[in-house]
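Notes from hallway chat w/ T.B., transcribed later so I don't forget. T.B. wanted the structure written out for a chain they're using in a teaching module, and asked if we could keep both sequence and C-alpha cells in one place. Agreed to drop them here.
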Amino acid sequence: MGKLFEEIDFRETPLGDLILQRRKYLQLDGLDVYEVKLGDAFLMSSMFHEVEEALSRLGLAALDGEGWDVVVGGLGLGYTAVAALDFPQIKELLVVDALEGVIDWHERELVPLGKTMNDDTRCRYVLGDFFKLAAAPGKGFDPDQAGRKFHAVLLDIDHSPRNLLASQNATFYTEEGLGKLAEQLHPGGVFALWSDDAPDDGFIADLGKVFREVGTHVVKFPNPLLETVSESTVYVAKL
C-alpha cells in the first residue's frame, strides 16, 4: 500500500517553511495527492487542478496566430504550465517562480509533472520574483533578453487580487501595475489570472483601464473530500 503520509522535501525560505508532501487518501481509493505548504498555508494540491488548467486554456484561447512566447507566473505543481504546453502554437514558455525549492522539485522530478516539463524543449524555468519583474518593463521576465515582449502572461500566485501571499504584491493589481505588465505584451497580447474569489468589480474596472477586452469565467470543480462543488475565477484581458 505504501506510506499514508510522506514529507518529500522541506526547506526554509524568507516567506516561511516550504514543504512538499504526499498523502494517500484511503477514502478516495488510495489516491496519492501531492501538497505544497508555505508556512501554515496550503498553496497547492494535486487533488484540485481544474482551474489551473483552465487558466491556460481560457487565456491562450484568446490569442491569434502562432509562434507564441508565453510567461507563466507561479510554478506550483506545474498544472498551468503543462496545460499551456498542450498548445502547439507556443514557441517558448518561461515559468517564473521566486522559490528555488519549487523549481528544484520539478528539475529533480520529485513531482508528477516534472518529467513532462523537463522533456519539452520549449519550457524554461526562471528563478525570480514575478511581481518585481512585472514592474520593470525595461528588464522584463527573460534574464537572457532584457525588455523582451510576450504574447501572453498567465498568473497563478496570490489567492486573489485582494487575498495576497505578500502585502507588497498589492501594487501589481492596480491600474499602474497592470499598465507596466501590459508594456511587456505584444499588441493583441493576453493577461490571464486565476483567483480563488468571485469576480471582483473593482479589479475588473482596473483591467478595463489598461486592456481593450476584459472577461471573467467562473470555473466549477468537484471537492471529493467534502462532496461539494467549489468555484474559482479566471480573468482574461486582451490588449
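Follow-up for T.B.: The CA atoms of residues 221 and 230 lie 5 Å apart. Might be a good example for the class.
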